[in-house]
Design brief:
Blueprint lengths: L2 E5 L6 H16 L4 E5 L4 H10 L15 E4 L2 E5 H9 L3 H5 L8 H50 L1
Parallel strand pairs: 1-2
Antiparallel strand pairs: 1-3, 3-4
Length: 154
């Protein structure tokens, strides 16, 4: 999986430059491999980015600004959603990547999996108990039926 970060190498906006640096710096700190794609010098990159940002994620003027983040062809989000994921310690989930072992995200996933496993075990135990109870009731009913048949035969 390739993370694609659409950037503008020659932007006049210091806010856009800071956002781009924040995204790139954080990905590098996490050692996430990414492909920086320049929309200022490459018209194909600009058109691809604009066409693949979902309509509901585009600003009012319809032109999404960098940085925009994709996992292959799948849209992850813009700077604001990246920032929210960073604040929630869920950047790997945001990027659609498995968290590295030992990370907070991996630990949270392990705990979630442990809870699911425990629930599954409890559900299996309950089903087994219900089946045993049903078998006991059936045996009792069969025993009662045999007694009734024996009494009628006498």
């Amino acid at each position: 999986m390739v993370i694609k970060v659409f950037l503008a190498s020659s932007s006049g906006s210091t806010a856009i430059k800071k956002k781009q640096q924040d995204v790139v710096g954080f990905l590098e700190a996490l050692r996430v491999e990414y492909d920086p794609l320049d929309i200022a010098c490459n018209e194909e990159n600009r058109m691809w980015m604009r066409q693949n940002v979902p309509e509901e994620k585009k600003p009012a003027n319809g032109i999404p600004l960098p940085p925009q983040i994709f996992n292959e062809e799948s849209y992850c989000g813009d700077y604001e959603t990246f920032f929210d994921a960073k604040e929630d310690n869920s950047v790997f989930a945001f990027l659609g990547l498995p968290p590295p072992p030992g990370s907070k995200e991996a630990h949270a996933e392990e705990e979630e999996q442990d809870e699911e496993d425990l629930q599954s075990e409890e559900e299996e135990e309950l089903l087994q108990l219900e089946e045993e109870e049903e078998a006991e009731v059936q045996e009792e009913e069969e025993g009662d039926l045999e007694e009734t048949q024996e009494e009628e035969a006498e």
